[in-house]
Each structure stands twice: as C-alpha cells, then as structure tokens.
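job 3f2a | input accepted
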Amino acid sequence: MRYRILGLAAVAVMLLAAAAAASLEPEAQERGRVHQHLAYRGDEGCGCGGSALCSHLPLIVIDTGGQRIPGALAEGMDRFGQAVYTASEDGLPVITAQVAVIDNAGANNHLTDPPALEAAADFRIRGNSSRRFPKLPYLLDLKDGEGNNLDYPMMGMDAHHEWALHGPILDKSLIRNYMWYNISGEIMEYAPNVRFCELVLNGRHQGLYLMVETITNGDGCRLPLRLDTKNAEATGYLLRVDRPTETELESIRDVYTFAERDGQIAQDIAIRYPGRGRLTEALKKSIELDVSAFEKAIFSYDYNTGQYGYWNWVDVDSFVDYFLINEFTKNSDAGGYSTYLYKEVGGKFKLCVWDFNNVCDNFREEVQEPENFLMVKRFWYFMMLKDEAFVERLLARYGELRRGVLSEAYLMNYIDETLDWLGPAIDRNNDRWGDEMENWEGLMPPERNIHSHREGVEQLREWLCERGGWLDENIHALRQYAHPSRNKKFSH
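job 3f2a | predicted structure (492 res):
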C-alpha cells in the first residue's frame, strides 16, 4: 500500500477526475459507446409475484436440443503442443441451437416475457485457457431461416450476427472485462462493445455473463473495413497475432512476414478479415507484403528516419493508447497473443484491445505485481521505445489519461457504480457459482486464489491503486529505453 501515499498527495488532481472523464464521454458516445450501468436499472417495483427469475439484465435463453456442445477440451495435443477440442456428434465444429433474447429495456425481464428475438445460431465453446474453467465461454453466430447470417442489434449494440458470451469465473470481481472494454472505448477509436446479461442454457440458470462484440468487420461500432477482391489497395483487413495452432476453426498461418523470417517473433499471423470465402491469393500476398514492409521498417537501422520511419506505416496514437491501457492493467497477452491489428483503406495500421480477463494480477500462470513494466519487450514496442519522440508521446498521453479515465478517483467510482447497478444479479451468480468461487482454484500457485466475489473486488481495487501509484512514480523511466547509451547498436 506504500504507493497509495502518492495518490493521496495528489488528491486535488483526483477531484478533477470526474469532470475530466465526463469531457471524454461525448466522443465515446459518438462512437456508439454506451456504459450499460449508466443506462437503466429496470423496474425495481416489478409485480411479477416472485418469478423464479426476475432480472433487470437482458436474458439469453439457449436450447441445444440435447446436442453435445463442441469446443470442449479433448485428449491429446496438436503438433504445436496446443490443446485439441471436441467436435459435435456429426463431426462438426458447431451445432445449431435455438436462441431467445428477452430484453425489455427499462423494465425487468422474465422467462415468460415475449422475446425480442428468436433465432437459430451456430453455437460452440470458445476461448483458450477459459475452456478449462467450470463456467464456460461460448460463441453465437445468429442465422435466419435459410441458414444465412442474421444481423441483430444485441441489447442495443450495433447489428451483427457474431457474438461472444464471456462468463466471468476466473475474475471473481466479475467486472474486469466490462470495465476495461468500456474504458478502452473512451480512450481508443475502437474497442468492442459489451453488455451484461444472464444466461439460461438448456433450462438451467448459468448466472452473470457478458455479451461481447467479436472483432470483425461491420457497420457502426465494428471495424469499417471495405472489401474489394479485385483491388488489394481498396481493401481493408484485420489480422490476429496469436500462438501457433492447427486446431482452431480457421487456419492460423496466413501471413509469413519479415519478423517471422528474421526470427523476431514466434507467433503466427492470421487474416481474420476478409474471410475464407473472399480471401484471394492476390489479397493474401498484398497483405503479407504490407505487413512485411512495416516490420522491415521497424526492425531496420532507419526505423526513426523521415523516409523510412515506422510512423509511415502505423497510426502512432493507436499504438500509444494500446500500450498504455495494457501496461496500466498488465495484460499479459497483449502484444503477443490475442493481438488484433487492422488497416482501413488508405489508412495505417491500428491496434484493437481484446480480453481483459487476466489483467490486474489475474493472470493464471504467474503473479503480476503492481511494480515494473510489461509492454516494453513486446516485439513491435521493443523498437518503438527506442524512438525518443514515441516515448515522449507515451508520457504526455499517460499524464492526460491519469487526469481522466485512468485516475484513481474515476476507476474506484467506476467499480462502485457498476457493482451497485448489478445488484441482485451478483447474488444470483453467487447462488449458481458460489461453490466454485470458493473452492475452484484457477490461479497458480494456489495460494494466489481468491475465494469470494467480495475478496475479488477488494483485490482489484487495491491492485489498481498500487499500480497507478507505481506508474506515477516510475513512468518517466521509459526514457531510458530511448537513451543512446542503450541503443547505440540500433543507431544509424
């Protein structure tokens, strides 16, 4: 708690946090950012007469018709040492399930209410390590009566057919993903939209879930990536940097770039958009050359010169914001795994955040102390930090965000308001998952594990205060990474 002293010393600054944060909200709202906990609570005076399930949150009701849900962990590993997943009884990666969405905006929701949507959906278990958890995550791909993609404005989010259902269980605070997707949406040009809901699967209540936009092309808040299969220069695209595998639903090794050839990274780069049906060999080659040109620039001796500088290929503000969000939260996957890179037509490379389940010392494999830097060794940032101009932009932006949405006052208030709004939904989640919350130990080593929602909230609050204090005191040490004495061998 030693770093909280610094925060208390800056109390005058923190009192300005709410006003500073509020000034950012209109821009976020223009991008479709809605903070669900500020929107509505529902009709607390509901006269349902003791309904078995009465929630101010939307209800997602899924019926698999007795089919086995594919995507669970199977025995064995692939040739890359990664997990293998189960298929359906027909040998397929998905099943067709029936989905109902009950969303009486501004009023409570009951299983007997008329649904806002009834549709079929391709359905499977999703995630990486989260497939090992007792509360499973799922993927929904909505379909119409003819099996075509069905775009639907899920809980007020922009219409699309593909949605991720995240069930917080490793995160016993329940709010990491909701909180940090939304805060990222205030900071960056794009971050996935999210809504809390309650899931009923095959007639059984599954507690609190988070409906999340998947990162893909689409109107509104999804990425505006224009496609022209005949002209590579008129096509936007989306890439995912992740661990090598051959068991995912899509091929993962699409782009073989300079950094791979040069041994700079071991991760694979997959093309997530355009999809398989529209990805021509010409487009694939064009994307590969595009990424290689950027990487050859960033890893060259001329990485910080006007003609060859990395900024000719990347949106520097996007890379600055992505660095600070993931550094502040110590997101262990960021910049290495589950890393999304996109490029609009005529634009530069931008980054998109994904998956905050492991942040703030909730990383499964090891402790993430509030001290020290995390992102400085990520492969692209390793070189960018050698540029003094980039470091100074990081420092200036950090100061701006600490006076706003990354201030201690803003973060603590965000936690309190979200939990207060969730209210009885937390109690219902505890009724369903209380034994697992108490006994299941997903973190290693076991002594790190927290055994209740209350303890999870306390840990999150304390860690964020400690982290902010340490960064306030040490963020300027990033200048060392750009010092000539450290980088002489990279200088031209």
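job 3f2a | The CA atoms of residues 297 and 303 lie 5 Å apart.
job 3f2a | closed
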